[in-house]
Write a structure and sequence with these properties.
By secondary structure, the protein is α/β, with parallel strands linked by helices. Helices cover about 40% and strands about 15% of the residues. Helix 2 packs antiparallel against helix 10, helix 3 crosses helix 10 and helix 11 runs parallel beside helix 14. The chain binds ligand 7TS.
């Protein structure tokens, strides 16, 4: 049994639960990660003993909670190695962060004839906001295609880049194939033609270290809930000078400096983009999630997940009729597959009866499904709280499903 797994397993109460009378095997981390007890306790603590608003009242309770809230911002800054805390905006999640960018950066920057470059690997939340923005501005969307291995075709990427390209928005890790995209090669190329580079880091944040200064990305988005934290909290990182140039996203409390019916002026960063009462409990608890990653060590997490991935590929490949999609140069612990003559929906339902949680469907990547020539895949996504036995249980489960259905 792996040492890291032994060290952390008791911190995740969900691992002690059952589904359909069987011990839970949770293989759906890409949808949302399980939460350590410290994260859960922090949410409860806020509602039990610390309820108040932030950035408003000056009573002691509000001062304490505001300072804890702002401490999370410092931890996020450290987590992604941002230069300044002002570059960290709290949002509802990756989806809201990307919509914010499309509404502010996109609407301000783009005009007819300009191009937004996305990839065939994108989640719908990194496609649809840009389509809406393209409709508003007259810009055009271009797509970096995938090769048969499941990697982005970098030669075509280079050819697609031109002075017309104003925004490139690509994920760091694909939620469907697990492909780790070579951002360190892609970002400088986009900058050469003067385009801004946005990283959808929804799947990247839970799997490893992010260094926005080293990457030199202009903006980066991720969700707390995929990073062992609560739902309803996310991050938008942006370079300070760029965020300063953007117009506000939503109007309301906290994002203003002064308001009159004649003229309203806006608050400084990061508050300019944080209108209204935020998810306070969520932000406080997110800090605990980041502490969990720091204490466990993101390199240790990556190494262990990689061992699990190799084991899963080896075992799944031995199952007759099972096809794994893609064989990218670098892959995070996410695998999509299909089994000949087995509908993914049936597979997921029958595995659920065995206590095994996987996701099936299009994974909010319908253009990728089209590229793969399927409507749906089965997907497992592994985290540091999984173990080798989980993969054995999955494979036994799949064999049982095959016996029932075939
Ligand atoms: N981008 C990527 C790459 C994602 O995987 C997801 C969610 C999002 C954006 C949106 O994140 P949200 O937190 O704002 O919803 N991906 C998945 C998934 O793979 N299964 O369920 C949600």
């Amino acid at each position: 049994m792996n040492k890291l797994y032994e060290k952390i397993k008791d911190q995740f109460p969900m691992l002690k639960t059952q589904m359909n009378g069987k011990d839970l095997v949770y293989l759906d981390t890409a949808a949302t990660a399980l939460k350590p007890q410290t994260v859960i306790d922090k949410v409860t603590e806020y509602y039990t003993y610390k309820t108040c608003n932030v950035h408003r009242s000056i009573h002691q309770l509000a001062e304490n909670v505001t300072s804890q809230y702002e401490e999370t911002r410092d931890c996020v800054k450290k987590f992604i190695n941002a230069k300044k805390r002002e570059e960290i905006i709290f949002t509802k999640g990756t989806t809201e962060s990307l919509n914010l960018l499309a509404r502010t950066l996109g609407d301000q920057l783009l005009k007819a004839g300009d191009e937004i470059l996305l990839s065939e690997l994108e989640h719908h939340s990194n496609i649809v906001p840009w389509q809406l923005c393209a409709e508003r501005t007259g810009a055009t969307i271009k797509v970096i295609p995938l090769n048969d291995q499941g990697d982005l075709d970098l030669e075509i990427y280079s050819n697609l880049l031109s002075p017309k390209t104003k925004i490139v928005s690509v994920n760091g890790i694909s939620n469907t194939l697990g492909t780790i995209n070579p951002l360190e090669e892609m970002i400088p190329e986009a900058h050469k033609v003067g385009a801004y580079f946005i990283v959808d880091a929804a799947q990247m944040a839970p799997h490893g270290s992010i260094d926005v200064q080293k990457l030199d990305c202009d903006f980066l988005a991720f969700s707390a809930h995929k990073t062992f934290g609560p739902t309803g909290v996310g991050v938008l990182y942006g370079k300070e000078n760029l965020l300063n140039e953007l117009p506000p996203f939503q109007g309301g409390g906290d994002m203003i400096d002064s308001v009159s019916f004649e003229k309203t002026t806006y608050n400084k960063l990061p508050y300019k983009f944080e209108a209204g009462t935020p998810h306070i409990a969520g932000v406080l608890a997110f800090n605990e999630a980041l502490k969990f990653i720091e204490n466990t060590g993101s390199q240790n997490i990556q190494n262990y997940e990689n061992e699990l991935l190799i084991y899963a590929i080896e075992k799944l490949s031995k199952i007759d009729g099972l096809k794994i999609y893609g064989n990218p140069i670098k892959r995070a612990s996410v695998l999509s597959f299909n089994i000949e003559n087995v509908h993914t929906h049936d597979l997921a339902s029958l595995l659920s009866m065995e206590g095994i949680a996987i996701r099936t469907g299009h994974h909010c990547t319908q253009p990728l499904m089209k590229r793969l020539g399927v409507f749906s895949t089965a997907r497992i996504s592994l985290s540091c709280y999984n173990n080798f036995k989980d993969i054995d249980r999955l494979c036994d489960g799949i064999n049982k499903v095959k016996e029932i259905l075939l």
